[in-house]
Amino acid sequence: MNTKNRILFITGTPGVGKTTIANDLSTDLSKKYDCKLIKINELALKNDLIQGEDLEKGYKIIDIDKLCKKLNKVINSFFNENTLPKIAIVEGHLSHLCHIEYNDIDTSIDTITDFKVIVLRLNPDILQRRLISRDYSEDKIYENLEAEALAVCSVEAYEIHGKNVNEIDTTNLKMRDVLKLVEDVLFDKKEFPIGHVDFMQWVLD
User: What is the pTM of this model?
Assistant: First the structure.
């Protein structure tokens, strides 16, 4: 029996499809594995980890250090349960800012934990239409489009997690195709190292 536990962070700019992919992935994997979906924004709200709000940009300010500690407690508690193997999916555009600590995991469980981060990417022109449909303000839309073009999430993720980070360009893919690629990365069938997705032309235009 495969006893490798797995942790997967699904991150990216708001609007790229993180929630849909994470929900579908969790549903599929739960048919075969003990799978837990952790939505990072809900975790922060539920545990009162909000420091304040940037009214100008319309963002809640989350205490990242406390969020990371809480996330580790949730994952460690899940992994310390008896059923094996386990898969923890962490979804949200702040998820890649968290470190995973294994100190609290029961060392009597003979497992190896595999950890990956997937950054979903999307052409800014398409992303713009999605954000408009969500009634984002003009400033908030531009800030997110600029972040996507400059690969902010990918850069941040790589600075923290290095070669564990993959990025998938979803621009010309259907959701089921993206889901298949995400599963392939999760189970070590494919790799998509960061650096091959380039939307810098959007900034230059």
Answer: 0.91
